[in-house]
Amino acid sequence: MTYTESSMDALRQAGDELADATVATLFERGEVGTFNTLMRYVSTAGAPLPDGLPEVAREYLHATSAPPSWVDWTEMEKARLFFVDNNVHISTALSFASMPACYVVPHVARLLSATHGLKYPSKRMAETGQFTVYLMQPDAFEAGSRFIPAAQKVRLLHASIRHHLRRENRWDAGALGVPICQEDMIGGQMFFSMLVLDSLHRLGIHMSTEGAESYYYAWRVVGAMLGVDQEAVPRTLEEARSFLDLYMIRHMGPSPEGAHLTRQLLDLYEEVVPGTLLDPVVPALVRYLVGDTCADWLEVPRTPFDTLVRAVPRLLGVLETIEDRSPLGAWALDRLGHLTTVLELSSLTRGRVMHYAIPEDLKKDYGVSSGAARTRRWTPPAATVGP
Length: 387
Fold this sequence. Notes:
The chain has 20 helices and no strands. It is an all-alpha fold.
């Protein structure tokens, strides 16, 4: 598949027809509050839908209750095993590369800044981490799992943000296209898949081409369930590289909103890291994974750890060698990675299940808070040639 400026421009004009129509009807009929209240009790796949659920919502939930028919379950199991083997590294890549990368796209940073408050990074990271953990469970697509309901709710959340921004004239559709458009949704899919794989490679993680392809495949399935047009989604890692390169060339750059959101994110990570001695490791790792140009745009501070963090791949390489050569070492490192991921997620969620709801009012649900500020402490495909 070949991506061009024209094909990317066309993707900017498209949203998610099914979810957008569902949200529009809920608002027209004044049923959003009822929907949110009842959907708090729908958290596992296969559970009976509650009485009183608006009919349009019932139809949407039925239509989106199963993964796409083309899913290759052998590939999905390979992806799950890849995640189990690399969970702490994937969490690191999501936290220190994927999240900041979102802020390097100015119109995405403006959208996030306009629709989320000062507590946004914590909530967003908790939701993303929980969503990924749900996805990589053995029973992710079976009755009793939490992944499918989470995907259904995230899709409606995106549609509700589109609804509010357009209704309130807070988005320049003429210049920027549809908010959370197909191009940006595919771009987000690339950030959480291709960019994660790039980061694992940069960290020196041992991984096979087969494992990387399976992990990417899993995020194609996720994209389909989140309303991403599968005719436009890259099918291979090579196509994904082409899309990601062109997307970033088209849109990346500095912005006040991107720098502000990055500072909030760094503050959050520094709060999670015990004590203050290792706080400089946080910006150093972000800078290492996203590169100096993007880090400067995001105003990531330089620290004495910028040089030291370059030794991380060598250290991880030693651990990876132990894991490759010793079944006991592999088991111990997998358990350590699992525990680290669980502890990180617990610190972000404060032990609570994150609920995804349709915001009835962006200012009330996602506006800037007046609360006090924080005071506590494989080989990737080669880059393509840009236009």
